[in-house]
Amino acid sequence: MTPAQCRMARSGLSMGVRELAEAAGVSTNTITRLEKGEALKPRTLEAIQSALESAGVEFIPENGGGPGVRLKK
């Protein structure tokens, strides 16, 4: 998950930093650091991505058009 994917996912879900932090079990500062492009531990990234996926986001890998996100049906 890239910083831009995290921002796009939150926006698509109308989810604030605090809501995502709570859902992922991390601090709001951790979400802010991720979205600024700072490196996080793999397990922290997994927790954040899992929280977003549970909320209804699907991550799209790099496939020539750039990585992205979409909302699940």
SSE layout:
Blueprint: H1 3-13, H2 17-24, H3 28-36, H4 42-55, E1 57-60, E2 68-71
Antiparallel strand pairs: 1-2
- Going by CATH, what is the homologous superfamily? lambda repressor-like DNA-binding domains
Sheet with the most strands?
A: 2 strands, antiparallel
Gap from first CA to last CA: 20 Å
Order of helices and strands: HHHHEE
Contiguous helical run count? 4
Which CATH architecture is right?
A: Orthogonal Bundle
Low-confidence segments, ≥5 residues, pLDDT <50?
A: none
- SS class: mainly alpha
Q: Give the tally of β-strands.
A: 2
Shape: globular
Number of domains: 1
Strand order in space, largest sheet: 1-2
CATH class: Mainly Alpha
Pfam families: HTH_3
Protein name: Helix-turn-helix domain-containing protein
Domain HTH cro/C1-type: 18-59
InterPro entries: Cro/C1-type_HTH (IPR001387), Lambda_DNA-bd_dom_sf (IPR010982)
Notes on the protein architecture:
The protein has 73 residues and is mainly alpha-helical. The protein has a single domain, classed as lambda repressor-like DNA-binding domains (434 Repressor (Amino-terminal Domain)), CATH 1.10.260. It is 58% helix and 11% strand. The protein has a two-stranded antiparallel ribbon. Strand 1 (57-60) and strand 2 (68-71) form a beta hairpin. The two termini are 20 Å apart.
Features:
73 residues, mainly alpha, 434 Repressor (Amino-terminal Domain), 58% helix, globular, Helix-turn-helix domain-containing protein, Lambda_DNA-bd_dom_sf, Cro/C1-type_HTH
Brief synopsis:
By secondary structure, the protein is mainly α. 58% of the residues lie in helices and 11% in strands.
